[in-house]
Specification:
With about 550 residues, this protein is of the alpha+beta class. It has four domains: about 180 residues, ATPase, nucleotide binding domain (Nucleotidyltransferase, domain 5, 2-Layer Sandwich); about 70 residues, ATPase, substrate binding domain, subdomain 4 (Actin, Chain A, domain 4); about 120 residues, Substrate Binding Domain Of DNAk, Chain A, domain 1, CATH 2.60.34; about 70 residues, no CATH class. Helices cover about 35% and strands about 30% of the residues. The protein is built from 14 helices and 29 strands. Strands 1, 2, 3, 4, 10 and 11 form a six-stranded mixed beta sheet that branches. The chain has a five-stranded mixed beta sheet with strand order 17-12-13-14-18. Helix 3 links the parallel strand 10 and strand 11. Helix 1 runs parallel beside helix 12, helix 2 packs across helix 3 and helix 4 packs across helix 10. The longest helix has 20 residues. It starts with a strand and ends with a helix. The structure holds adenosine monophosphate.
């Protein structure tokens, strides 16, 4: 079975295809979402998801999150003194999802379709693939997130040609994609976004309002107090959706501070964030050569599209109601699972051809004549432009710039700068040409870029018809079997916690955190319940553990 995985910035999900359609697989805690958070303690014990997130306020130095943003970069995260690359942290999340799926399905899971943001370049896609390999998963295919969402919405089943806009506002990233379904081909026409805009920023606004109202300064709070405040603000943010006003309470020092924020007040404070949403929407439309009125459907994905403030803004912006029949958190994973089924040629799903866009410009270095007889070299000439649908093939004719020039060097570059030196060098090809006065000889440079990030460069001398070819495999930094095995071995000191105790661990962590937040009598009472639960855990008596945990959970619910 090929599972579908949404490896998100904030949360990750895993899904599979059943006779009744795609389904989300619950994690070991029985929940659909697994926070993309990893914690490693001094002894090398690994915690993933909710438990790792709960450790954030107690042991911040052992926790990493939002590492998806650094995929494909050299950034290193230090947890309990040990260093990890983003794809290694991602692999721990994937491994946890894989184990949950295996225990749920009762079979081994070795193949997956993993979703990636449409704007992820080759390097970041390769890093994602490597994360899969490190988790013991063969990554059958990567699907872009908006395409996966569109597939999940069943748009691939439409008979009519449709244009839609996928609006994805997650915890920390924002993407807009324009897709088009045309004769059974589902095509990403354009993507745009903001890597630093998401639900967390809307939480940040509430934090600021709280601080203002209480006359506090974030810099004066301890790290733990800050974590606590963000947690409370996050809760308030989700609640404000339906209410006129919301109260944020937080223990600062010895005192519980409180602030009331009204919906309109919150909306006004979010004005800058909402304005930031407008730009990528405009850019994606103009890159696709479309107007807002050309869009037939708007799909919302990403947890932060649940915010009333965002929804209200979108209705004003688009002047129509977005399609919200899907759970915005689940659409991408479900779409990836459908893609997995397509890949397996499951007869229940019709195969649609999914295309993608090139997320960066590919071109070559040229000399330009900026005035009669005056030349400037080192300029960049785009051949396949950003957001071109791939597979794509484009040809550019280039002329000689000197008399009796007998060769041309074709340098292959990737990037958006007007200057070759600022773009990424991918390779070069030398071509011989017959001598002639300048401008009389020419070459046709053809770039063909396919969905697997293979770029074929063909240079044809126009006068002689002689051609030369080169294939560039992106920066193929896929690891070899041995390299993967070696790194897996290096990571093997990590001790993955037994699955069955996850719930107990989570309750204990939550209790410890609340103990730290509580004072006086409440604190003592909590301590009593925690000790009772710990004693039950030591006894190993299953029933006793269950009872004590339930009792403790009830107390915690009440506290919170
Ligand atoms: P994602 O990255 O798609 O999982 O989205 C996570 C973001 O969605 C976080 O910033 C959450 O605070 C936000 N979020 C989740 N549920 C809600 C809700 N009911 N109301 C507002 N924001 C939400």
């Amino acid at each position: 079975m090929i599972v579908g995985i949404d490896l998100g910035t904030t949360n990750s999900l895993i899904a599979y295809f059943t006779e009744e359609g795609p389904k989300i697989i619950p994690n070991r805690l029985g929940r659909p979402l697994t926070p993309s958070v990893v914690s490693v303690d001094e002894e090398g014990n690994v915690y993933v998801g909710e438990t790792a997130r709960e450790r954030m306020s107690l042991y911040p130095d052992t926790v990493a999150q939002t590492f998806k943003r650094s995929m494909g970069t050299d950034r290193v995260y230090t947890l309990s003194g040990r260093r990890y690359r983003p794809e290694e942290l991602s692999s721990l999340v994937l491994k946890s999802l894989k184990e949950d799926a295996e225990s749920y399905l009762g079979e081994e899971v070795t193949e997956a379709v993993i979703s990636v943001p449409a704007y992820f370049d080759d390097k970041r896609r390769k890093a994602t693939k490597r994360a899969g390999e490190l988790a013991g998963l063969k990554v059958e295919r990567m699907i872009s997130e908006p395409t996966a969402a569109a597939v999940a919405y069943g748009l691939y089943d439409k008979t009519r040609d449709t244009r839609f806009l996928v609006f994805d506002l997650g915890g920390g990233t924002f993407d807009v994609s324009i897709l088009e379904l045309y004769h059974n081909i589902l095509e990403v026409r354009a993507v745009a976004g903001d890597n630093y805009l998401g639900g967390e920023d809307f939480t940040g606004v509430l934090v600021k309002l709280f601080l203002q109202k209480c006359g506090l300064n974030l810099g004066h709070l301890t790290e733990k107090e800050q974590v606590r405040l963000y947690r409370q603000a996050e809760k308030a943010k989700c609640a404000v959706s339906g209410e006129d006003k919301v109260t944020i309470r937080c223990l600062i020092g010895e005192e519980e501070k409180e602030a009331v924020v009204g919906y309109r007040e919150y909306e006004a404070a979010c004005a800058d964030l909402l304005a930031k949403i407008r730009e990528p929407v405009k850019k994606s439309l103009s890159d696709a050569g479309l107007r807002l009125s050309d869009i037939d459907e708007i799909l919302l994905i990403g947890g932060a599209t649940r915010l009333s403030i965002v929804r209200d803004f979108l209705i004003r912006l688009f002047r129509k109601f977005p399609d919200t029949k899907m759970n915005p958190d689940e659409a991408v994973a479900l779409g990836a699972a459908i893609q997995g089924a397509m890949k397996e040629r499951n007869e229940m799903v019709k195969e649609v051809i999914l295309t993608d866009v090139c997320s960066f410009t590919l071109g070559t270095e040229v000399v330009v004549e900026y005035e009669e007889g005056k030349f400037e070299d080192g300029r960049f000439c785009p051949i396949i432009e950003r957001n071109t649908v791939i597979p794509a093939s484009h040809t550019e004719r280039l002329y000689t710039v000197r008399d009796n020039q007998d060769r041309v060097r074709v340098r292959v570059l990737q990037g958006e700068s007007r200057f070759a030196r600022n773009n990424l060098f991918l390779g070069e090809l030398d071509v011989e040409i017959p001598k002639a006065p300048k401008g009389e000889e020419a070459i046709d440079v053809t770039y063909t870029y396919d969905i697997n990030s293979l770029l074929e460069v063909e240079v044809k001398v126009v006068s002689t018809g002689k051609t030369q070819k080169m294939i560039i495999k992106g920066q193929d930094n896929t690891m070899t079997e041995e390299e993967i095995e070696k790194r897996m071995e290096e990571l093997s000191y990590l001790k993955v916690q037994p699955r069955d105790q996850e719930e107990n661990r989570l309750v204990l962590l939550r209790a410890e955190r609340m103990y730290e937040e509580a004072l006086g009598e409440r604190r003592k009472e909590l301590d009593r319940y925690i000790m009772r639960f710990e004693a039950a855990l030591k006894s190993g008596d299953h029933q006793r553990i269950e009872d004590a945990r339930q009792e403790l959970e009830e107390v915690l619910e009440e506290e919170e």
